[in-house]
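Side project, low priority. Logging it here so it doesn't get lost.
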Amino acid sequence: MLVSIHPQNPQERSIKQVADCLKNGGIVIYPTDTVYGLGCDIFHPKAVERICRIKGIDPEKANLSFICSDLSDLSIYTKSITTPQYRFIKQYIPGPFTFILPASKEVPKILKSKKNTIGLRIPDHTITHAIAAAVGHPILSSSLPGDMVEEYTDPEWIHSKFGKLVDIVVDGGIGGMKYSTIIDMTEEQPHIVRQGVGVVECL
């Protein structure tokens, strides 16, 4: 199903439709401030496993991340965050960054890496924020399977390619082609793991 949502003024009914799908264990493809991504409710292990099958990856080796609606989720899903780390993260969110942080006990086991960490994102995108807020807790964030190609920016093309594998494809307009910048926050000094569209001036 292709659901069109206005990128600046998301229709409440459409956001609820997507959120209800996620809360019921569905899988959606949705826009972010970088690329279109695969998502599900983080508390539905079978949905997470389904995404891993679509991508052809092992859930235990996937290093999946998730999207939060705001900073309040930091204290719930991460632990041992220092004041300098919090201030560092705060200056770059919302934005095209993924922060690797120590996972708390609230993070489902299937989403934790072998190092007991989690990738956390707060995108600067109205639709993404609205969906996560409507769900009431974070949603999974994973790139579409295969190599990134220009067609992956077009939601109608995405629907024709992946529509039968997911429950909803959100049409929020043309997406980007560059990934988020990944920053490892598990050590005293943050360091960039992957340089993406997000630029950090102080590292």
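Brief comment: The chain has one domain: 2-194.
Revisit when time allows.
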